[in-house]
Amino acid sequence: MSILNGKVVVITGASSGIGEATARLLASLGVHVVIGARRTERLEALASDIQSDGGSVVVQQLDVTELTQMEAIMEVAQSRFGRVDAVINNAGVMPLSSMEALKIEEWNRMIDVNIRGVLHGIATGLPLMKKQGFGHFINIASIGAYEVTPTAAVYCATKYAVRAITDGLRQETAGQGIRVTLVSPGVTESELAESITDHEAKEMMKEYRRTTLPAMTIARAIVYALEQPEYVDVSELVIKPAM
Ligand code: NDP
């Protein structure tokens, strides 16, 4: 039996890609998964798969840019299971474009979902974890948190921000029973590139995303961090295709 059996994990952006794969894997290990995203029909379909495999899952509609909705998903987890062992701040968008395209609405959306969304996860999860005396934040950044590429300036800026926030949170919570992990995937199979509206960026991405990792690879990295004994904090994981 997995050490994670019976734990309670909240996952944002669980309706596709990495969040969905992580929900499936955690549920198969006996974790109660509380899954949030905007597309509830996708969440319901995932929940029904998990339940038919004997897993435990709760669906909650969630827009991470709305603090009240993040509060609601934490409350649901708390009232159903009485605890939150981990929060996976995974929801993200990546509408890439060059700066000169001035897609200001898309810049703002990336800032809102990728940065503000993670902060909302921390703002609602941290008081809970401090009260419990335990908890684990897993924040999903990207290889774009370490290196900027053309058309990805704003996306990378949001992921640099996630990395900085995660590092600060780790330092401030050290010694309080709260663990903090940054998971940075390389190119991974998902729906992420579908949000690109810019023609130039879309073409570049076709080449860039030719070799992808299965989303389950990232789910396994998340499980690795969660499965460590309480005295181990896996600070950062960077996962890239081997070729
Ligand atoms: P997907 O597009 O497949 O998944 C993104 C998820 O985020 C969806 O479930 C989507 O659900 C959710 N989401 C988007 N906006 C919101 C919102 N406002 N509120 C709540 N949920 C939202 O892509 P990935 O699985 O690849 O992305 C997961 C994370 O991994 C992201 O943070 C991404 O930046 C990161 N990443 C991905 C890489 C890759 O190559 N795939 C590489 C590096 C990092 P819905 O639309 O239903 O709300």
Q: What is this structure, in a nutshell?
A:
The chain is of the alpha/beta class.
Mind explaining what this structure looks like?
This protein has 7 helices and 7 strands. It has 243 residues and is of the alpha/beta class. It has one domain (8-238): 3-Layer(aba) Sandwich (Rossmann fold). A 7-stranded parallel beta sheet has the order 3-2-1-4-5-6-7, with helices on both faces. It is globular.
Architecture blueprint of SSEs:
Elements: E1 8-12, H1 17-28, E2 32-37, H2 40-52, E3 56-61, H3 67-81, E4 86-89, H4 104-132, E5 135-140, H5 153-173, E6 178-185, H6 199-208, H7 215-227, E7 236-239
Parallel strand pairs: 1-2, 1-4, 2-3, 4-5, 5-6, 6-7
Helix pairs in contact: 1-7, 3-4, 4-5
The structure holds NADPH dihydro-nicotinamide-adenine-dinucleotide phosphate.
CATH superfamily: NAD(P)-binding Rossmann-like Domain
Give the % helix. Answer: 40-55%
Please tell me the total number of domains.
1
Radius of gyration: 17 Å
Bound ligands, each once: NADPH dihydro-nicotinamide-adenine-dinucleotide phosphate
Cα end-to-end separation:
34 Å
Residue-averaged pLDDT: 97
Q: Which labels suit this protein?
A:
Rossmann fold, binds NADPH dihydro-nicotinamide-adenine-dinucleotide phosphate
